Amino acid sequence: MENSIILSNDDRPRDECGIFAVYNHEEAAKLAYFGLYALQHRGQESAGIFVSDRKRVVGHKAMGLVPDIFNEEVLDSLKGDIALGHVRYSTTGSSLLVNAQPFKVQYAGKCLAVAHNGNFVNARALRTELENEGSIFQTTMDTEIVMHLVAKEIKNGIEKAIINVMNKIKGAYSMVIMTEDAMIAVRDPNGFRPLCLGRLHSGYIIASETCALDLIEAEYLRDVEPGEVLIINRDGMKSIKSEIQARRSQCIFELIYFARPDSNIFGQNVYLFRKKQGELLAKEFSVDADLVMPFPDSGNYAAIGFAQASSMPLEMGVIRNHYVGRTFIQPSQSMRDFGVKVKLNPVKELLKGKRVCIIEDSIIRGTTSKTRIKTLRDTGAREVHMLVSCPPHRFPCHYGIDFSNKGELIAAQKSVEEIRQYIGLDSLGYLSIENLVQATCIPREELCLACFDGKYPVPPDRETGKYSLE
């Protein structure tokens, strides 16, 4: 669609993908469809499903949302009891069909399809090394790096090949590799990104989040462990642990923002975690306001916790239009405010003359917040205060979130007071790192907080650039 654009005023952070895999179920493709539907929030750029009937691997992928790509006819054509599905948002590599996943190759008589989530911090060096050795890349995405490395090691068998590849790649990755007759789940030794294992009747499910298991009524068994290679085939399930020594470094932003609130990740219920963030905000800050409100849907659950802990009335001061996709026709210059109001529109009668306290989950670049606050002022809000349920993002993420340099982060350039002035607030406060960690019930040393404190569990290579595993 040449006349469509991504919402230009949307500076919300984005993750890059969701994974859903099925082993040993006669309706594997349809289960994968529903699983991806549940994980649509993790990527809205493209989607794909590949299946195996134990003899050959076939699939379908396209640009767009899951329900727009797959219909009954397409799903009926994907026959097999093994399926691998993927939804993608790109942080590198062009937004083209060739870069959609799963990514499939044929090598040495073996068919491999891969889908994964995360980011290599040594991707540029690996790609350069492979090209110097004669590897020819078909796409601009770094997903191919995995396949080239596996191909070099495949003579030793798929299990040893994957273990050897894990010794070469550095960074964050949750990954599923499908062959004609097996499903292999891999999670990096630090455990940055979530990946879980479920059971459905006599089959197994691998998913990025438990909400996908819930939709198909699969039983949650456990998380795939950091550094684990989990092989599922005719012989059952086999677990191999990498010998790489690394501290657990679970991404705190998965809990703050990316995961669906009805999911459990890292042993935590996301809804209850976000509600606890709000409770701790109320203990850390006292705001004299008439009502507390979120910008739907990001701040909803922290706002509930804050309102209950502060005994302040909770109101939905802005209403979200749930029928807006990621793209729409470019408004003309005379309609420049349309981009904001098409998604969220304030309730004028509720906000006029009121002192409003907004609970937000994060401020990344600040442009969206600035526009939204101006809209509230124009509506007649007397005072506008904001509390953010995480600390300021001062450092780029090298592990798969799309703020990969300091220039994209307002808190890396401005103080809290300067951010307050820029956005146009009467007051602004951020949850402390200490209270954020307390909300998780996870030891601080088992979390990746690098975007807040700059302490990277896996130091990025000097020439990392924006090569990422998506």
Your description of this structure?
The chain folds into 2 domains: 4-264, 4-Layer Sandwich (Glutamine Phosphoribosylpyrophosphate, subunit 1, domain 1), CATH 3.60.20.10; 272-441, Rossmann fold (3-Layer(aba) Sandwich), CATH 3.40.50. It has 470 residues and is of the alpha+beta class. Helix content is 29%, strand content 26%. Residues 1-10, 326-330 and 463-470 have low confidence and may be disordered. The relative contact order is 0.14. Helix 5 crosses helix 6 (158-166), helix 9 packs across helix 10 and helix 9 (270-284) runs antiparallel to helix 16 (433-440). It has a 7-stranded antiparallel beta sheet with strand order 4-3-5-2-11-10-12. Strands 6-7-8-9-13-14 form a 6-stranded antiparallel beta sheet, covered by helices on one side.
Strand content range? 25-35%
Q: What would CATH call the class of the largest domain?
A: Alpha Beta
Helices, by number, come to 17
Radius of gyration: 23 Å
The count of strands amounts to 25
Question: For the report, how would you describe the main beta sheet?
Answer: 7 strands, antiparallel
CATH topology of the largest domain: Glutamine Phosphoribosylpyrophosphate, subunit 1, domain 1
Q: Secondary-structure blueprint of this entry?
A:
Elements: E1 4-6, E2 17-23, H1 28-38, E3 46-52, E4 57-63, H2 66-69, H3 72-77, E5 82-88, E6 103-107, E7 110-120, H4 123-132, H5 143-153, H6 158-166, E8 171-178, E9 183-187, E10 196-200, E11 203-207, H7 210-215, E12 219-223, E13 228-233, E14 236-241, E15 250-251, H8 252-258, E16 264-265, E17 268-269, H9 270-284, E18 291-294, H10 300-310, E19 318-320, E20 327-329, H11 338-341, E21 344-346, H12 348-351, E22 355-360, H13 367-379, E23 383-388, H14 410-413, H15 416-423, E24 427-430, H16 433-440, E25 447-448, H17 450-453
Parallel strand pairs: 15-25, 18-22, 22-23, 23-24
Antiparallel strand pairs: 1-20, 2-5, 2-11, 3-4, 3-5, 6-7, 7-8, 8-9, 9-13, 10-11, 10-12, 13-14, 16-17, 19-21
